[in-house]
């Protein structure tokens, strides 16, 4: 069953010098919906963090994700371009954001914010972890619309043809990621966050996010077209798969450390 990717303009609308793109909308929706859900989760736990603090953290989150995502993309995927043109790192309008870089950026933002406001780092990281799949979901849908991160050719009975690329049936890898790294991951983390004993074990949800995301991403990468300028590393593994390994290890450490730690 072959589906043809609909021709959708990456630009939603343009006001001359300002363009609103689907990828930008994905970030905006993910951040605002995430903030609303975080406030609801925090309220359910007794408002451990004040609403004002969460509103302030929103700005920190935006800065961390954008700076981390851009710097991570340039360093991990476009280092030669950066070495030839250092100002390339500021050319956000040309596209290019890394999930792993954005993750590091938001972790740094959480850490600094918690230090300043004397908030439990793992509690805030758990809140952010629960809603992160929402942003991933919207981001992968935007990737599909923009014909980015396409899947590898396949004879599987459900495929998508990307006319802008070729007429070869391919895996809709963006949609697989939206489903597993977005919907499925969000449901699992939300369920675990509300477990009765979770208040005693801040940080387990964060670790669970890292572990499950790594697993989903690692296996889906096998059916996703490798980055053209990088290809397969050692003719077997992609850069995305390599980057999931440290996340998986850190996630296991978070789960073991916080899962067996007694309440302070």
What report would you give on this structure?
This protein is mostly helical and 264 residues long. The protein has one domain. The chain is 60% helix and 6% strand. The chain is built from eight helices and five strands, in the order βββαααααββααα. The strands form two sheets. The chain has a three-stranded mixed beta sheet with strand order 1-4-5, with no helix packed on it. It has a two-stranded antiparallel sheet with strand order 2-3. A hairpin with a 4-residue loop joins β2 and β3 (19-21). The radius of gyration is 19 Å and the shape is globular. 35% of the residues are buried. The mean pLDDT is 89.
The low-confidence parts are none
**Strand/helix succession:** EEEHHHHHEEHHH
- What portion of residues is helical? 55-70%
* Span of the ends, CA to CA: 56 Å
What does the oligomeric state look like here?
Answer: single chain
Count of helices?
Answer: 8
| Main sheet summary | 3 strands, mixed
Number of domains: 1
Proportion in β-strands = 5-15%
Tell me the structural class. mainly alpha
Number of strands: 5
Rg (C-alpha, Å): 19 Å
Mean pLDDT: 89
Shape: globular
